[in-house]
Design a protein that fits this description.
Elements: E1 18-22, H1 28-32, H2 47-56, E2 63-69, E3 72-82, E4 88-96, H3 105-120, E5 125-131, H4 135-143, E6 147-148, E7 159-165
Parallel strand pairs: 4-5
Antiparallel strand pairs: 1-2, 2-3, 3-4, 5-7, 6-7
Length: about 170
């Protein structure tokens, strides 16, 4: 990911314009204000926690990606490199603010992130670990073509390990 990340084109369905942006000194306060519903809080880190993880994992080429909707910050994601087997992109966190959920924006943003990573193509796949009880997130990942690998990590037995493979 880089400055000036790609904008989504408007689809025939009339979906609003989304853009992936680098989180930096100009917009991190907007990201910090993002939150999810109380029922979702145990499934992912706070927006500020996601920014902090981006700093902590900088040696793994971590990128904190802001998601804007017609210029308004509506979400944030964290992607880092995972060089151990299976070597892949690690989509560690993906959040859409509670005010913007249920509109298809999460699915659209996820597809944009996957598309951007596929263009970069350092790895052949993206790994995601999702709490098994997080039905909303699992639905979005499924719609984007991310599949359950069946692998259970002993350190996170309550999570599903998902994978998105880029086309050959």
């Amino acid at each position: 990911m880089r400055r000036g990340l790609r904008k989504a084109s408007r689809y025939a369905k009339g979906l609003p314009m989304l853009e992936l942006v680098e989180v930096d000194e100009r917009n991190w306060l907007d990201v910090r204000e993002l939150s999810v519903a109380e029922s979702q809080e145990g499934f992912l880190d706070s927006a500020l926690g996601i920014i902090a993880r981006g700093y902590i994992y900088r040696s793994s080429r971590a990128r904190v990606i802001g998601i804007t909707h017609d210029g308004t910050m509506i979400g944030v994601a964290l992607v880092k490199d995972l060089d151990e087997e299976p070597a892949c992109y690690d989509l560690q966190q993906f959040m859409i603010d509670k005010r913007f959920q249920g509109r298809g924006l999460g699915t659209q943003a996820l597809r944009m992130i996957l598309s951007e990573l596929e263009r970069e193509r350092k790895y052949d796949c993206v790994e995601v670990c999702v709490k098994a009880q997080d039905a909303a997130a699992l639905h979005i990942y499924e719609k984007a073509g991310v599949i359950d690998t069946g692998y259970v990590d002993d350190d996170a037995p309550d999570c599903l390990n998902l994978m998105y493979r880029f086309a050959c």
